[in-house]
Amino acid sequence: MAAITASMVNDLRQKTGCGMMECKKALTEANGDVDEAIKVLREKGLAVAAKKASRIAAEGVVDIMVADDKKSAAMIEVNAETDFVAKNATFLEFVQNILKTILATRPANVEELLTKQYVDTDMTVEAKLKDMVFTIGENMNIRRFVIVDGVVGTYIHGKGSTGVIVTYEADDAVVNNDGFAEFAKNIALQVAGAPSPVLYLNKESVPEKDLEEEKSIILAQLSNDPKNANKPAQILEKMVAGKLGKFYEKSCLLEQEYVKEDKMSVSQYVENTAKALGGSIKVTGYYMYEKGEGLEKREDDFAAEIEKLVKG
Predict the structure, then answer these.
(1) In Å, how far are 107, 116, 224 from 119, measured between CA atoms?
(2) Cα–Cα distance between 283 and 260 in angstroms, integer?
(3) Is the model's pLDDT at 111 over the cut of 60?
(4) Which of 99, 118, 238, 279 could form a disulfide with 174, with the two C-beta atoms 3.0–4.6 Å apart?
(5) Residues 6+ apart with CB under 8 A from 79
């Protein structure tokens, strides 16, 4: 039996990212052969990944990649268990390579994406994901992605906490103007950073159901105010119509106040930019991902964790 030294264990740990005890056990099983130990660890990796699949992965990152020809973009959310891993260079490179795979193969959904060949390897995306789970030691999940074609502007907020893609119709002369890229990013920033959440593109895109619900809420608020007790129904209806304007300004992207300049709506900013660039611009839609949105969050008891480590 070959002697297993600390330097051998550390070397295997550096190569695989696995824990010290896992590396020592693998080297012992492989009789000190590092390559064989790596194989042992990888063979056990699928089982390890399966065990970790039940653990909560609500951290992670949202990332965006624009195609080289600037005619499409992809946005993805990949989750991990801890924020620490989400900042890991290997994890971030993994996310970027998935985006390259998405733009190259254009899968219809996550299930199809997992079957695609991971860029510059002979592995599938699913196999690479399992390999990452084993190597880094946390559960990971490719939650969602979107491919957007056409003229786009993008923005990533908070090192991947929020991602936005905004779509446009614009003249070629405008799109090719140096000022358009900054404008497009500013609109995407508006979606991510507006004081009120952007729920709709414009007034026309508000579903009738949502509009009627908002009207009923406003009417109930007015009716419950003692000051309005003696006001006739037609007056209350006019008051409702007036308050709907505030609803649009709060909820519709193009009606919102532009975050970078007071007393200017986003639609006015779009119009002013189109004039300045000598063409036409129309904002046609937007996509926004917020990291961990709607997912159960992990709650760590750090004191208990430290005590467990100390006691071994």
Answers:
(1) 14, 9, 61
(2) 18
(3) yes
(4) 279
(5) 57, 58, 59, 60, 140, 141, 143, 291, 292, 295
Q: What is the pLDDT of residues 5-59, one digit of tens each?
A: 888 888 777 676 666 777 888 899 999 988 888 777 766 664 455 555 556 566 8
Q: How far is CA 264 from CA 153, 181, 261, 270, in A?
A: 20, 20, 6, 10
What are the beta bridge partners of residue 227? none
The structure tokens listed for 174 are: 């405008």
Tokens, residue 14? 């550096």
How far, in Å, CA of 16 to CA of 251, rounded? 48
pTM, entire model: 0.74
DSSP annotation string for 282-297: EEEEEEEEETTTTPPP
